[in-house]
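Subject: for your reference before the review

Hello V.,

The reviewers asked for a structural picture of the protein, and I figured it would be easier to keep everything in one thread rather than splitting it across files. Below is the amino acid sequence we used in the manuscript, unchanged from the supplementary table.
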Amino acid sequence: MLTISEITKAFGGRTLFENVSIQINREDRIGLVGPNGAGKTTLFSLILGAESPDKGSIAIQRNTVLGHLPQESAPAGEETVLELATAINPEFAELRKLMREGAATPQTNGSPQILDDSETHGADHLKAKFEALGGSRLEARAKQILNGLSFRDRDFERPLREMSGGWIMRAHLARLLVQEPDLLMLDEPTNHLDLEALLWFQDYLKRYPGAVLMISHDRSFLNQLVQSVVEIRLGNLVRFRGNYDDYLVQRKAKDEQHQAAFDNQQREITRLMGFVERFRAKNTKASQAQSKLKQIDRMEKIDAPAADEQTIHFRFPQPARSGRRVIRLTNIDHAYGENVVYRGLNFEAERGQRIVLVGPNGAGKSTLLKLLAEILPVQSGTHELGYQVKAGYYSQHRIENLDPDQTVLEEGLSTPQRVTEQSVRTILGSFLFRGDDVFKKVRVLSGGEKSRLALVKLLLDPPNLLLMDEPTTHLDMASIDALVIALSQYEGTLIFISHDVYFIRAIANHAVHVNDGRLTAYPGGYDYYLQKSTADAARRAALEPVPRNGAPNKTPDERPGVKSKDQKRLEAEQRQIRYRQRKGLKDTVDRLESEIAKLEKRQQELTTQLEDPVTYETPGLPVKINREVSEIQDRLEEVTADWEKMGTKLAELVSNDEK
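And here is what came back from the structure prediction:
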């Protein structure tokens, strides 16, 4: 369907691609990965014809339709949401526009203007042509897709210019899905989707009839969808079979093989050069030395392996310890005009919880987060912070707190916490501010760069109650990993909203489902939430009334004793969920056991010090040691309680799976 042959492309003296080739076939599912600036978006531009290669060719099979969703800045005009979603070609868009103008016939003196025969005939002709192009069927399909992307029915006739950039991008995505191009090219398609819309979109793409080429930093999304990964690395395109996790395993093995081959060749070159150096001055050995030099010259030299990005070894500052109950909302009412979001809302979070808010778009997740952060005032009810609780709220609006006249590095250093310049530069580098980027003025940064800088500042001086709205937006995979590391170290309480399933799984230990002003708490991670919510939905379905004819609700092809494909798929998903939950619990139990062992070892060391008379010769040292012993004892009690609780859960899971 599409063949890239030996292309080379350079910008400003830097070569992005050199003699690279790749073949894309129908129904391929390909993830395009590589660090920021590697050339992923440029490759899209080359395929679309917006850029031309310096060398080589790109051949697209005749009549192949390409569809492209850019990462940002899709256009919006006077058209409505539904008009854009059905604008699959210029003819159809123009036809809908003419029909709309005909329906909005001007009025005279408050009475509808009567169409003459020619105008009526014209309107009938337009409608007939509209139906001949499959208009009604197309509109029904567009509405279904728009609903899946979290648009409400009342949004269909809203002009796009009234909507935010994120919703405009969703409408353009809907248009592409309605169009069904042969090759769907998606640049960060999940950036503007909430979790519910993302899961719908993910399921939709699994059934998509064409090929898909996508750039994404959402590894869970890639794992669910792609059959191969193309990595842009040092000007080359390397294809790996399998999903993103498979790619990581294969790339590691490939890198190890490359390193081993390079090391072996370097050892051989060193051995040969040693011979040359020893004997080149001796007449009897000179010819042999020259032969060894020629042997080295004839070798096909193996390039030195590319240095991987350094793993971050940075200990983030920790906030002051709060009381057990961190925050409580009691009988909260909140409405936007006539739109009531919450009535009698109750919510509570305890120290150490990492709560993800999940639920459909418009359910009130962001409103709840803003109520917790006191960004929105309480209209009715009470908002209580616990003992020594300091709350911090992260959203895109946090960039307003940055000083436009300072450099990136100066902003990073302007924190109450004592941090060295090297430490700040390390964490800035992990969030894509590398080299001379740290000397840029804040005023020249893009919106995404400002958001990342605000995130760095928050992590360098974190409150003990952290409220975060979509923190992974604008981050690449390495930066998301850095954020996961930071929040894994974080000892405070975290409440967040995210559509990144990998990030949610890595961080959350509680989930709260928000829908229609009601909160349902799930005291476990994301997989636990999925398992319990699926079971709850099944129970609700079982309680639905039987149809009047007394027959149970069955699909037409359902046969007694035979499992449907959906049943088999659901059972397989449930097994995977139980496995991941069991593995997560085991990892937690192992981690807690390790911490207990370390604490007990340190406790024994301190006890030995207290028993040593020399300790008491240093003023204040016994008091300091006793204080640390007391702190360790408190921590041991907490960790042991958690270990017992997690161990019990793990034993129950294992027992249930064995039944």
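For the response letter, the relevant points are probably these. The longest strand covers residues 325-336. Residues 247-298 form one domain.

Happy to draft the paragraph if you're swamped.

O.
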